[in-house]
Amino acid sequence: MSRASSIWTIAVWEMNRSMTTMGRHVLPLAAGLLVLLVLVMGFAASSGVHMQDGIYRIGIDDPEVARIVAPDNRFTLYLDDGPALWENRFAYDIIILNGEVYAAETEKGLAALKTLKRDYDGYVSRVAAGEPDLFAGYPLWIDLEYVKSELDFQTVMSGEQASPTADTRVPRATPGSVEAVTPPPSAMLVSEDDLRVHLAEARSDHPMSRYTGILSGSSATDGLLVPSELSPPLPYDALILVFVFIFPLYFTSQFFMMSVMNERVGRAGEALLSTPIRSSAIVIGKALPYFGLMLIIAGAITVFIGAPLTILLPLIPVILFFLANALIIGMASRSFKELSFVSIFFSTLATSYLFFPTIFANTHVISIISPLTLIVLELQGEGFTAMEYVYSTALFFATSIILFYLGTINFREERLFSEKPLTSRLADFISGAINRDHPNLALFILAAFTIPFVFMAQMMTLVLFFNIPMPLSLVLLTVSAAFIEEFAKSIGIYAVARERPTFLTPKNLIFGAVAIGLGFLVGEKLLLFATLAQITESIFGSVLFLSLQVLWMPLLLHITGVLITGGFLLLGGRHAYVPGLIAASVVHSLYNLYFLTGGLL
Amino acid sequence: MNGRHIGIIAKKEFLGLSSEKTILFAVLLQVFIAMFSSFLMVGLTAMYDPEAIESYSATTYGVGYTGADSPLIDEFAKRDDLVLYRMDLQTAIDALSDRQIAAVVHVPDTPPDAEGPITITLYLIQNDLQSSIINVKLKEVLQSYERELREVRADRMVSYPIGLNFPKASGGESFFEFVYGLLIPLLVLLPAIVSAALIIDLITEEYQRQTLETLISTPITYTEMIWGKIATCAVLVPVQAGAWLLLLGLNGIAVGNIAAILLHASVGGLFLILLAAIVALHYRERTSAQFVFSTALVVVFLFVMAVPYNPLNLIVRLAVDTAGPIHWLILALTAGATVLLGWAATAYAQKIGESGQKER
């Protein structure tokens, strides 16, 4: 059988199997639940959400005033005469006597006051909207225009505050920038009727509308607004994209994870493994239906919200990444509960990696490390270049391919059906990738392969520490980057030492360390020049990728790091691994800090 | 049913949890979230209430003013956190995109008492945290200008809103409504959902690994085994929820009536666990059971939220001390529903256990 046809056989078989296990029993109930869901949504829409009912107590002496507050469920309303209210004033968060508002001097009282103010503003607007003379009720209209401005790393680099603060001198612009601006016309171009319609719509708007507005591309802030409608544009709004695009994909990848796990439960996959089909064909064949399904789901969502189909391009590496991780988690977990916990943990990590950089979309080049940023750009109608696509997706493609490779070579009986704990299984997977006949070549390749993961982890720390003030963020970044690198380099040695303790002789350690150091350096070089040139130009980049400036120095550093960890392993056995790792990280950080201060001074 | 047998099973499950160290991942997750906490706090609060972000900024912002003179200049003069610069439009926009100033307002020469509207053009930097803050500040200025204009044009209006005099608010924005009205109920709900997912794993695992035979051959009955697992998961709910509330307390967020809140959480959690257990008993296969349960969970959650005086709302009220004795009634009702569900789960488990015995 050719490779393609065996992949196809497995894919068809996988589809049939999941359809029969899921289909017969689950689909009728799922359909029933879907109907229930629609009914409950209708009920919730008419009844409203009653989460915060009655958190504040308000006492009012005038039924007319009470009518303003009544629609807001957050207030429990007490109507009483003035003196009685005043006497019991400490039982209330707010009392209103003769049109005077008194709030309790507590955090809760202040929060209640804020809520009341908003309700009152809404009431005033409603009264104004009923005016026959619209421009007496709403004399002021605002036309919002956005100007694009991108921060470059240079601003952050010199440590100055990148915010538009006012100082004593009059601001002046650098000449010759931006295109000419045409002053806006002073007369209003929209008809009065349109404005009334707009106001009526704004009144009935659901609080979620700002989030749905992001997806439809045209936000509610287009066109003319009254001051109370001004709503700050939130960079966090991109979180809605995580809910809309990422969660359904993650949810679907769970089925693949379970399918992999099911092969292992009760040695169910034994029959499959005994066929002449190669393990790569099995893995690809099993993943293929889920890949297709996820693509269809993503496509359906895209069509549903009316976005261009090009946003599927940045989603493909994300889908692959989820599938690759699902494969490894499904192969490594010992039990269902471990599967649940690990996958929840992974999903949180992956979601933050995808989401946090998008906060800086439009403002900072760092945002481009997340494919989600490309989606944001695409939804804004700006699109992305091929180069940007490579920048933001290269790490996802690389890590997915490596994880799939790791899963494929370990998709064997003795690995799948062993009952070892999670960490030693993962170590087994890695040592499974180390060729016994050419251990040094294998260590070299392994070290090069860890680079995309190291970069991902370091990007994560970069995003994490980005907000901390300057000197501290650099130190934290240096230390964590050193630790991540030392950890990645030690994996190979550790895995070998676990499986074959006799392998770890001083001579072999030195050869191994040289191989790992070289592999690390080559991998770093290759990936960096291929992708991340933009970030490396900044000071943050020089912290993370310091080792690229002079060649022999970093090589020596990488080798020393492995030698330290390996030396601890050699002398103290496996229990000395963690101290060794810490020692190596300390040496590595000191080296980096020395060069950094030397480079800056 | 034998209480000791249930205890044995519960102990076995606890040992399994601790030996796998899977619970460690839950702890790691919490630490990870805590690392992002300041980020999340600002972010989530801002999503909940966009105007709260204003309180994060103590700096003064420059605003470019172009176009005709207007009373708006006086409104700006009242603020000490905004500085106005008069400039022409082109310079202003250039300065804005260079981030020399935070916003530009362009005011037309329409007089305040004109027939038509006054249309101000506002230029901001796109999708930027800074412009979110400046947006909130400008909104306050513009709203106060709107009030002034309404007074100027008051003789053209036919109805007047009831006047209310608000005290000068002291102190900045607070997290109050977000923390008590959203964060606390969700943190208390989370352990219940985790436990419910856990019971599915525990039950389906016995089936799929075929370890059930061994368990049933001991004197422990099938029903006792199921209840032992339910007990394990149920105990985790108040423990985790209590830990969250304790953490909040350490962070200076005082939560009232903790005992009553944990009682509500335990009963609600047990309800979800029983629901998950019944689903797991029916399917005996993890993928289907988790899929059906997570869909059912959404339905139950949406339904509960739409009912006044639902348990989550009561947790909010209890946390801010405005619950009143009615919460005991609701607790009794929830407990009643949980007992019914527990009875159903027991009957179902007994039926399965008996049919299993007949087969042998």
From TrEMBL, chain A:
<feature type="transmembrane region" description="Helical">
    <location>
        <begin position="389"/>
        <end position="411"/>
    </location>
</feature>
<feature type="transmembrane region" description="Helical">
    <location>
        <begin position="441"/>
        <end position="466"/>
    </location>
</feature>
<feature type="transmembrane region" description="Helical">
    <location>
        <begin position="344"/>
        <end position="369"/>
    </location>
</feature>
<feature type="transmembrane region" description="Helical">
    <location>
        <begin position="472"/>
        <end position="497"/>
    </location>
</feature>
<feature type="transmembrane region" description="Helical">
    <location>
        <begin position="311"/>
        <end position="332"/>
    </location>
</feature>
<feature type="transmembrane region" description="Helical">
    <location>
        <begin position="539"/>
        <end position="564"/>
    </location>
</feature>
<protein>
    <recommendedName>
        <fullName>PrsW family intramembrane metalloprotease</fullName>
    </recommendedName>
</protein>
<keyword id="KW-0812">Transmembrane</keyword>
<feature type="region of interest" description="Disordered">
    <location>
        <begin position="158"/>
        <end position="183"/>
    </location>
</feature>
<keyword id="KW-1133">Transmembrane helix</keyword>
<feature type="transmembrane region" description="Helical">
    <location>
        <begin position="287"/>
        <end position="305"/>
    </location>
</feature>
<feature type="transmembrane region" description="Helical">
    <location>
        <begin position="238"/>
        <end position="257"/>
    </location>
</feature>
<feature type="transmembrane region" description="Helical">
    <location>
        <begin position="509"/>
        <end position="533"/>
    </location>
</feature>
<keyword id="KW-0472">Membrane</keyword>
<feature type="transmembrane region" description="Helical">
    <location>
        <begin position="576"/>
        <end position="596"/>
    </location>
</feature>
TrEMBL record, chain B:
<feature type="transmembrane region" description="Helical">
    <location>
        <begin position="329"/>
        <end position="349"/>
    </location>
</feature>
<feature type="transmembrane region" description="Helical">
    <location>
        <begin position="178"/>
        <end position="204"/>
    </location>
</feature>
<dbReference type="Pfam" id="PF12698">
    <property type="entry name" value="ABC2_membrane_3"/>
</dbReference>
<dbReference type="GO" id="GO:0140359">
    <property type="term" value="F:ABC-type transporter activity"/>
</dbReference>
<dbReference type="InterPro" id="IPR013525">
    <property type="entry name" value="ABC2_TM"/>
</dbReference>
<dbReference type="GO" id="GO:0005886">
    <property type="term" value="C:plasma membrane"/>
</dbReference>
<keyword id="KW-0812">Transmembrane</keyword>
<feature type="transmembrane region" description="Helical">
    <location>
        <begin position="253"/>
        <end position="279"/>
    </location>
</feature>
<feature type="transmembrane region" description="Helical">
    <location>
        <begin position="291"/>
        <end position="309"/>
    </location>
</feature>
<dbReference type="InterPro" id="IPR051449">
    <property type="entry name" value="ABC-2_transporter_component"/>
</dbReference>
<keyword id="KW-1133">Transmembrane helix</keyword>
<feature type="transmembrane region" description="Helical">
    <location>
        <begin position="21"/>
        <end position="48"/>
    </location>
</feature>
<keyword id="KW-1003">Cell membrane</keyword>
<feature type="domain" description="ABC-2 type transporter transmembrane">
    <location>
        <begin position="24"/>
        <end position="310"/>
    </location>
</feature>
<feature type="transmembrane region" description="Helical">
    <location>
        <begin position="225"/>
        <end position="247"/>
    </location>
</feature>
<protein>
    <submittedName>
        <fullName>ABC-type Na+ efflux pump, permease component</fullName>
    </submittedName>
</protein>
<keyword id="KW-0472">Membrane</keyword>
